[in-house]
Every structure is written in structure tokens, then in C-alpha cells.
Amino acid sequence: MSEFVKQSLGNLIQELKNEPTKAQVSFEATSVLQEGVQVNSTVRQFEFKFDEPELLGGKDDAPNPVEYVLASLGACQAIVYRALASLKGIQLDSVTVKTKGDLDLRGFLGLDSNIRPGFQKIVFETIVTSNESAEKLERLAQQVDAICPVLDIVSKPIPVEGTLTIQRTPELVG
């Protein structure tokens, strides 16, 4: 599998070196509120669900958005480890990323405007099983952290713009 990753990424890197304009891509998601606080989201051909624990008014049928953020960070780190290790010929037997985020509900619930509604802090631990040297794996870890898109998103401010579109419910014709 690592050879497939190496070949795929190698081909992409060469293509982008030849045609840098192809490097600009967009990703999209659509999220629709369902019953209670449940949400169905669609990304490409994939659908997944969100919910909240009962403490926050949900039915606890699915992870909540901040849990998906943590899982996305862990998944992105693991993917970037595989990608870079494949390109550099570094053998990885396994990669596990454990993430934890601390959140103060007073911010989310609007009880204290001095407390941010999102995570106060995120920490992660990457557990790599490999017979490569510690120095090589530490260098790899630094490179992973430098280019992991989700780590970049959650650790550095980026511009975010939102708009509101209001649609009126059609009146029932009687």
C-alpha cells in the first residue's frame, strides 16, 4: 500500500511542478439540521451524521462537531505520516494519533463572554511503531507537523466568511 501512496503522490508532485495552476483545489460540505440537534452532512459521495451528547440536548447517536475536529486532526496526521514516510522510504508499521481538546461550556452557552466557545487547548500524541532510528522519526514528525493541513487549520487563524440566506416558507393554499 505504501508503494501505491508513493507512486500516486510522486505523480501528483510531478504534475503540479509542471502545471502549478492545478494545485488550487476546493473542498465542499453540505450540512442539514435534522430532528433535535442531529445533522446530516454530505461530502462528495459520503454522508455522515453529527449529534450531541444528552448533556447538550442530543440523543448521543453520533459524534459532535468538536469531536470530528479532533478525529480530523488525528486522521490528517496519520495520513501525512504515511504519505511522507512513503515518499522518503521510511518504514512505518503503525501510526496511532490520540487527540484531546479542552472546552469550557460556559463559552459555548454564552454564560461568560471572556471564555471562547471553542477549544481552549488541543493536545495530541502520535504513537509510531517502526524500527527506524529515533532521529529519522523525529525529523519525520517535524515535517508532518509543518505540512499537516488540519493542524494548520486548527493552530493558525484563517479568514472565514459566512452569509445568511433567508427563504420564506410558502403559505399553504386553502
TrEMBL record:
The keyword Acetylation does not apply. Keywords: Oxidoreductase, Peroxidase. InterPro entries: KH_dom-like_a/b, OsmC/Ohr_fam, OsmC/Ohr_hydroprdx_reductase, OsmC/Ohrsf. Its EC number is 1.11.1.-. Transmembrane segments: none annotated. Pfam families: OsmC. It comes from the Bacteria. GO terms for molecular function: peroxidase activity. This is OsmC family protein.
